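Retry 2 of 3 after timeout on previous attempt. Resubmitting C-alpha cells to design endpoint.
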C-alpha cells in the first residue's frame, strides 16, 4: 500500500474501502466506532463492519471485523446501523441487505441484531431479522437503524422512501426484538430529496434534532453543492403523540466531503458526531494506493442562540499537539506573509479583528513548493468564506462557499492532515470539510490580505502527532 495520502490522526481502515460510521457508543468506559468496510478491495463491495476503539477519542486501536455478511438475509452486505448497551450487552442493530436487481436499484432490506459481552466478538440473533419487512408507507429501501432508550422503551428511526419522497420512520420496543411501528417521523417536501439515509434523532439543549442525509436535493446557490447532503431539522417532539414539529432543513457542513453523520452521548453529557469524510462518486485517488475512505474528527454538538447546531472539535484533540509555534499576536499585516514549514500534520488558529481591518478580503493558503495550494478566503463585505481546493487535487469542482456573518472577529481553527482539511469557523458557526490530494512537498502557510491591511489578533499553529506510526 502506498502511504502518500494515509492520514495521521483520523480513523481509517488498515486497508481497502470504508464509508459510513456505524454504532458510535461509549461502552465500559471506552469509545467504540464501527464503520462500513469492504476488507477485500479498495472499491465499495459487500459491506462488513470494521471496528476501532479508544479511551480518549484521539488514540484508536483496530479491532477484528465485527460483522461479516454470512446469512441469507444479509447476503449482499451488513449495512449501516447503531449500537446500544443493553444491561451490559453491547448490541448492534444493523440492516441486512439483499440486491433483488442492483441495476434497477431494487433491494430487500431488513433489520437485524448482533450481541457481544466483551465488546469485540459478536453473535447474530437466531431470530434475525427482527424487522423483516418495510412498513406500508415505505419501500424496499429501508435502512440505517438508529436506536436509543427513553423511559421503559427502546426507539428506532430508519431511513426510507416512497417513490421520490424521502422520509424517516419510527418504531418502539421493550426488548429490542419485538418492534411496534409508530409511523412517519418526518418526510420530504418537493425539495428535500427522494431518499433519506442515516437518520439520527436526539435531544440537544432542550430541542429535538433529526439529522439525516438526503439524496436527490438540487443545488441552490452555495448550498447543496455535493452529490448528496447531510443536515438537520430542529424542533419539538412529544413521545406521547410521536409528533415532531420542526423548522426548515439546514445543511450541516459546507465542504466537499461530509456525509452519513452519526452521534453518541458520552458520560460527560456531550453529543459527539463523526461523519464519513468522503462523498459518493467523487474523485478518490487513494484507490490507486490500495485504500479508500476515512472518518472526520469527533465533534461536539451544541445549540446556538438561534437554534442552530454548532460543531467544534472535542477538547481531547489538544492531546495531538506536539510543538507550538506562535507566529504573530496583535499585529497589522498587508499583502502576503509566508511561514515556512514542511509539517503535513497541523492544527492552526487564526483570528482577525475585523473592526481594525481595512482590507476587502483576508485569508490563508496551505502552500506547496511550486503551484499547489489550498486557500481559505473571507470576503468582508459580503461575509462569504471560500474554501478553494482547485489546486490541491479537486480540480474544477474545488470551490465551496458559505455565509459567515461576523462584524467583529473572524476566528478559524483548521486541522490539516496529509489528505484532508477541516475548518471550524467562529466557534462552530460554520464548518467546511474536504479531502485534498497534494502531490508537492509542503512549503508553508501563507497569510494574505487583498486591497488593504488586516489586524491579526493571534496566529498560532501546532505540529500534531501521527497516531498511526
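Retry 2 succeeded. Sequence:
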Amino acid at each position: 500500500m502506498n502511504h502518500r495520502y494515509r492520514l495521521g490522526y483520523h480513523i481509517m481502515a488498515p486497508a481497502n474501502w470504508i464509508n459510513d460510521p456505524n454504532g458510535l457508543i461509549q461502552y465500559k468506559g471506552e469509545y467504540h466506532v464501527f464503520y462500513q468496510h469492504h476488507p477485500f478491495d479498495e472499491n465499495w463491495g459487500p459491506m462488513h463492519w470494521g471496528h476501532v476503539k479508544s479511551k480518549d477519542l484521539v488514540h484508536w486501536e483496530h479491532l477484528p471485523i465485527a460483522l461479516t455478511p454470512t446469512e441469507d438475509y444479509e447476503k449482499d452486505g451488513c449495512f449501516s446501523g447503531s449500537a446500544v448497551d443493553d444491561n451490559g450487552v453491547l448490541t448492534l442493530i444493523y440492516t441486512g441487505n439483499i440486491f433483488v436487481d442492483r441495476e434497477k436499484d431494487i433491494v430487500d432490506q431488513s433489520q437485524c441484531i448482533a450481541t457481544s459481552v466483551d465488546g469485540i466478538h459478536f453473535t447474530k440473533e437466531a431470530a434475525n431479522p427482527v424487522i423483516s419487512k418495510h412498513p406500508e408507507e415505505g419501500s424496499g429501501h429501508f435502512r440505517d437503524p438508529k436506536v436509543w432508550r427513553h423511559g421503559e422503551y427502546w426507539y428506532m428511526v430508519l431511513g426510507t422512501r416512497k417513490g421520490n419522497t424521502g422520509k424517516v420512520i419510527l418504531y418502539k420496543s421493550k426488548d429490542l426484538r419485538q418492534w411496534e411501528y409508530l409511523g412517519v417521523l418526518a418526510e420530504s417536501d418537493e425539495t428535500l430529496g427522494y431518499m433519506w439515509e442515516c437518520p439520527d434523532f436526539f435531544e440537544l439543549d432542550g430541542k429535538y434534532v433529526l439529522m439525516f442525509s438526503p439524496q436527490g436535493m438540487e443545488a441552490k446557490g452555495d448550498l447543496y453543492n455535493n452529490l448528496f447532503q447531510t443536515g438537520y431539522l430542529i424542533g419539538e417532539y412529544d413521545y406521547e403523540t410521536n409528533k415532531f414539529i420542526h423548522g426548515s432543513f439546514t445543511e450541516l457542513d459546507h465542504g466537499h466531503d461530509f456525509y452519513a453523520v452519526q452521534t453518541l452521548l458520552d458520560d460527560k453529557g456531550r453529543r459527539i458526531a463523526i461523519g464519513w469524510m468522503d462523498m459518493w462518486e467523487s474523485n478518490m485517488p487513494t484507490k490507486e494506493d490500495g485504500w479508500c475512505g476515512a472518518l472526520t474528527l469527533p465533534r461536539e454538538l451544541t445549540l446556538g442562540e438561534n437554534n442552530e447546531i454548532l460543531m467544534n472539535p472535542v477538547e481531547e484533540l489538544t492531546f495531538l499537539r506536539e510543538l507550538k509555534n506562535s507566529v504573530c499576536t496583535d499585529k497589522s499585516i498587508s499583502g502576503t506573509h509566508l511561514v515556512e514549514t514542511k509539517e503535513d500534520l497541523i492544527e492552526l488558529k487564526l483570528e482577525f479583528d475585523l473592526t481594525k481591518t481595512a482590507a476587502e478580503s483576508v485569508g490563508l493558503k496551505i502552500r506547496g513548493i511550486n503551484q499547489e495550494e489550498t486557500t481559505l478566503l473571507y470576503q468582508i463585505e459580503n461575509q462569504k468564506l471560500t474554501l478553494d481546493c482547485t489546486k490541491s487535487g479537486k480540480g474544477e469542482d474545488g470551490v465551496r462557499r458559505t455565509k459567515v456573518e461576523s462584524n467583529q472577529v473572524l476566528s478559524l481553527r483548521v486541522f490539516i492532515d496529509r489528505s484532508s482539511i477541516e475548518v471550524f469557523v467562529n466557534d462552530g458557526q460554520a464548518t467546511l470539510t474536504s479531502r485534498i490530494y497534494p502531490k508537492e512537498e509542503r512549503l508553508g502557510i501563507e497569510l494574505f490580505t487583498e486591497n488593504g491591511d488586516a489586524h491579526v489578533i493571534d496566529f498560532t499553529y501546532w505540529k500534531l502527532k501521527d497516531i498511526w506510526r
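Attempt log closed. The mean pLDDT is 96.
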